[in-house]
Design a protein that fits this description.
2 copies of one chain form a homodimer. In chain A, about 35% of the residues lie in helices and about 20% in strands. By secondary structure, the first copy, chain A, is an alpha/beta fold. In chain A, the strands form 4 sheets. A 7-stranded parallel sheet of chain A has the order 3-2-1-4-5-8-12, with helices on both faces. In chain A, strands 9-11-13 form a 3-stranded mixed sheet. The first copy, chain A, has a two-stranded antiparallel ribbon with strand order 6-7. Chain A is globular. The interface between A and B is large, with 52 and 52 residues.
């Protein structure tokens, strides 16, 4: 298949590009390199030393018979170029990672709030318009987030995959309907993914686009089979207060003998998935597109749920790290249950990598190995939800 | 009160500004004059001859003790200026009309699709961020649309005011919830209003903004008490295939002895409100803000529903116009029932102007009076939903 990976230089996009390339697909990466630019802006870095996208690709193309190609383009800002590229390349599928994906960054200040909304909405909408305009039968696979559901907000546990059966209570009686699960985003970033859902709803209905939306949990882990093939292929590992998701932050803190920083009491339950499973899920999603005319196909891309305190203790057991409780910078429930229905991917053959199996490799091969690259001043949260 | 009217040069914004000014409020109009620019772009015009915003305001300020002020600004593009203006002016309320509001225009081509989404989302979101940033306790009154509900899609008739009671069917049994009515927009324009709703949901929850969202029907009528005071205060009247809503198009067609053009069989039922009632509704909404910390307050801003065929016949009875059936350029149900709950405004004192009472004035005082200004080539629909 010919596949375009939007945001193919990022944490999920890069290993996905390699995985699909390895499987024999023809890959075109489009990226505006914004993640690297934001590192410069925030004074942060990837714990793992990553090389330029051009060098990464050059190395890969010496190892793999099918070369990956790359074009720098800002799909949110340059609609015309995007449309032209799609029409010329004629992809069978497009995987869309090209959104600002940090919740803390999206809450940092007026510039990052407006940037997150403008960038993410324009990127997704430009893409939908360009696919429609191309008249090609392209399958769009989008990275959503578990955060669209809110955490346990409706009380519906397990959280279903995208849609929920309800009875509407009307003056004339009850009516059964299956509706999109009500949205309850917890940050401006999560908000943008709920906006994406409504855009998908319109373009599947009006233009019969084929769209898969993957509501992903928090991704952990760094390397995949493919990124391990050469040290210049290594994946990025974010640990700072904005882009470092909770598990990576804990790992890095353990490595430098810093206490694991828990926001609040750590009784928040979150959903997780290993990067190895992420790339496999995307492969499965591409192989199983919805039919033309069907509504958005939604998967929960999650393999397990954990309370943050239990996660910290898991790492503590392996590293003897201390735990430090910080005031929670986020507005969120102090405590929540979370059970997630992930039947669809399991039935299609996903084989979960659990935290219990995979954590030690992260500790020794990544966090402790690159601990000397940590910039200490970026560890603490610098964004507040009510600033 | 000090009130900012965003989009105060437009069809609803202008009479609202005058009405609230007449009531003694201090009014600042912000507008980028995009509606006039789009007239130039499309080669269309207002049937009524409208003067410049500067002249309109000059005339008004000779008639009314409280002067209206105006500043040209594009709130979607210039966040910094918007924030500064809000902080300096310190309004009690902001009325937000500043969105591209034509469904056909929003479906015309790739430029108008992306413009509509980018402009409307950025305008609303910039505003939410700027109000949050100002730390002022400002009541935001937003013009939404009945189109967010879809027409009879859920089968919930009457359509409730924004929220709907449901029972979620979960593995553990049924859970009662009141949720935002599921969105089912019929055009890119309507889509943007469903995106607005989700943004309001987030900013009421996270930042306790006070927001009222008015789900308006199709506005008909031209003049209000205030716009009649001087001919240079006259309101705009759009009749072209893109911006002319169905009733105004029929009126103009009758005036020039053109058949009334019905899309499909005319069995679509739509909700209507007279411009006189619109300005009154906004006054009522301003007087009845939600409390800080409450969810978005939603009103259905509608006074009656009519099938399009019945509307045509109403005008036919008064003018002897013929009726012409055209292929429907829109993707929509050929036929729908529509009953709308508008209890909230009625209970707060709204006194509806019905089509039966008000139609003749529109026929004689507007359509026939200015018939010589019609540009014939703009009558037919020029946007298709599946182009």
């Amino acid at each position: 298949m010919k596949i375009i990976i939007l945001g193919g230089d990022g944490f999920c996009g890069w290993p996905t590009s390699l995985h699909l390339s390895k499987r024999g697909h023809e890959i075109l990466i489009l990226d505006n390199l914004s993640r690297r630019k934001i590192d410069d802006e925030l004074g942060t870095n990837s714990l793992t030393p990553i090389v330029s996208i051009q060098e990464r690709i050059k190395v890969w193309n010496t190892l793999n018979p099918k070369p990956i190609t790359f074009k720098k383009i800002d799909i949110a800002q340059d609609y015309q170029a995007l449309e032209a590229l799609i029409k010329n390349y004629k992809p069978d599928a497009i995987v869309h990672f090209a959104e600002q994906r940090s919740a803390p960054y999206s809450m940092k200040n007026t510039v990052t709030k407006t940037y997150t909304v403008n960038n993410n909405v324009q990127a997704t909408h430009n893409l939908l318009v360009a696919i429609t305009q191309s008249k090609l039968d392209i399958h769009l696979v989008h990275l959503g987030t578990m955060g669209v559901y809110g955490y346990g907000w409706t009380g519906a546990n397990p959280i279903p995959e995208g849609y929920v059966n309800v009875e509407l209570i009307t003056r004339k009686g009850k009516l059964k309907k299956e509706i999109l699960h009500p949205a309850n985003p917890g940050s401006v970033y999560h908000l943008t993914k709920t906006l994406d859902q409504l855009m998908f709803g319109f373009y599947t209905k009006n233009d019969q686009l084929r769209i898969t939306d993957l509501h992903q949990g928090i991704v952990w882990g760094t390397q995949t089979k493919e990124t391990k093939l050469d040290k210049r292929l290594i994946n990025r590992f974010d640990y700072d207060g904005d882009y470092g998701t909770v598990l990576n932050r804990f790992l890095m803190q353990a490595a430098i003998k810093h206490p694991l920083t828990i926001y609040g009491k750590g009784l928040q339950t979150r959903a997780f998935i290993h990067i190895n499973n992420t790339v496999k899920c995307i492969e499965i999603a591409i192989q199983n597109p919805p039919k033309r005319g069907e509504r958005t196909s939604i998967f929960n891309q999650v393999t397990e749920t954990q309370r943050l305190i239990d996660l910290a203790k898991m790492i503590q057991k392996r590293t003897n790290a201390k735990i430090q409780y910080l005031e929670n910078p986020r507005r969120e429930d102090a405590q929540n249950d979370l059970v997630v229905d992930n039947t669809r991917f399991l039935e299609l053959g996903l084989n979960p990598t659990t935290l219990n199996e995979g954590l030690m490799e992260e500790v020794s091969e990544i966090a402790f190995k690159y601990a000397d690259r940590v910039q200490l001043d970026t560890i603490y949260p610098s964004s507040k939800w009510n600033n």
